[in-house]
Amino acid sequence: MRRYSQQTRMLLAVDCIVVGYDGQDLKLLVIQRSFEPFKGQWSLVGGFVHENESAEDAAKRVLTELTGLDGLYMEQLHTFTAPKRDTHERTASVAFFTLIDIQKYTQQMSDDYHPAWFNINEVPHLIFDHNEMVELAKEKLRYKAALHPLVFELLPAKFTLPQLQNLYECMYDTKFDKGNFTRKVRSTKLLVKLKEKDKLSSKKGAFYYKVDAKKYDAGIKSFLNFAPSLLNNGLKSK
Q1: Domains of the chain, first to last
Q2: By three-state DSSP, how is residue 32 classified?
Q3: Element (H, E) at 59
Q4: Do strands 191-198 and 206-211 pair parallel, antiparallel, or not at all (unpaired)?
Q5: What are phi and psi of 160, to 5 degrees?
Q6: What is the pLDDT of residues 13-59, one digit of tens each?
Q7: Neighbours of 20 (CB within 10 A)
């Protein structure tokens, strides 16, 4: 195979920022690195891109190996190319972020990776530039969540409005007024109210909702700027 002459070789890796929601907190999945350098230290889920696969395919493979599942929501975040970002060998890394419902995938997690969940605002020191990747992913997630209802990827198939509000409050690190939040969410017409109630959280109970799949897939226009309007129009609780 003909190669470019006099060009420096470098490895290509992928790193996945896996964000999940457990009903209480927004969390980040990390693993213990299994090889040197920094063996045993906390790391994002990642691996090297094989010769005959794309970065996207490599990221999907790595996530499937960890969770045993495919079809997860995944989006490319950024490519990190600092010459000395990897202390062992010149390596560029394509970072992706993915969203999962923690309760749905807990049983499938491979123990081979020693996975652990940390509050996304209390992430431990990670190897290389992985903490930088996490911070960028948090910024991107907040931005994307304001333009598209992708936060529902973090929720179970049925959920209550208090659960949804808590998720948004975790994501934006602020408090929303309950009444205004509820009216704003209902105005999107994205949710379908179910007859069943969650009786565990309160005596009165809260109705469950599900996402209207057709409207979600269409990326409804009524959801645009949903979160910014909550933040900017005085809808925060005092």
Answers
A1: 11-147 (3.90.79.10), 156-232 (1.10.10.10)
A2: strand
A3: helix 55-67
A4: antiparallel
A5: -100, 160
A6: 999 999 999 888 999 999 999 888 899 999 999 999 999 999 999 99
A7: 22
**Within 10 Å of residue 104's Cβ, how many Cβ atoms?**
14
| Omega before 115 within 30 of 0, i.e. cis | no
**Going by DSSP bridges, is the β-strand pair 206-211/159-160 parallel, antiparallel, or unpaired?**
antiparallel
Backbone angles phi, psi at 98, to 5 degrees: -135, 150
User: Token pair for residue 146?
Assistant: 């304001």
Residues 94-131 pLDDT 10s: 999 999 888 777 666 777 778 899 999 999 999 999 99
How far is residue 236's CA from residue 231's CA, in Å, rounded to a whole number? 6
Distances (CA, A) of 235 to 180, 217, 220, 230, 231: 6, 28, 22, 5, 6
